Please model this.
Amino acid sequence: MPDRTLEKLEPVPVIETAHRLRDRIGARFPDRGIHRVAQELAALTEQVADTSADSRRRSRLVRGGSHGLITLVVLVAVVAFGFAVDSAFTEAPDNGLDWLPLIESAVNDLVFVAVAVVVLHSLPQRVQRSDLLTKLHRLRSLAHIIDMHQLTKEPESLRDAFAGSLDDHDVDLTPEQVEYYLEYCTELLSIVGKAAALCAEESQDDIVLNTVSTIETLTMGMSRKVWQKISVLNDERVDP
Model:
């Protein structure tokens, strides 16, 4: 029998990994901004998991309410249509052209009922979409913040012959520390992608899925840039 835990991304391992990464960064860089970013990401990952559970409960409530309203609208429409048909045949117009306003009114009523049913049917999906897109927007913003942290960690700034200007917070980093810093950035970006993927587990909405895919592509592109820096840094350390 297949292991059902492998059929979807579970939130608990993602949260635990985010917490371990936060602690590792705190142990090595307790006073740097990357530690605060790790703390924010760990908290946001928990919120994404909680929002997913809350979103399911809210969606069930909204879905039940919308189905009840749909049933009510359809029943009212059927009863009203029945009275209209009975009245039309009881007081049938003598001229065939007099039926046109009645038919037009019936068609308009049917269109309004259909629109109401469609709107009520899509309400649970729109509520869930709004919740998930709010979290995905925060994750995307956090990915850019992580990218900003790695931008100033240039391997060439560690060369003795480097003539550029350095921020006071960067000059005290050794090549080994810069490598750790960059590796932590890639791990944080990976967690951002996993947290976004948790949103995809709770929705089949095209807008949500496209946003998740955009964030995953964004974080992978950022990670590639960071790994290029790590590769250059390692080459600099190997070369005499």
Summary: The two ends are 56 Å apart (CA to CA).
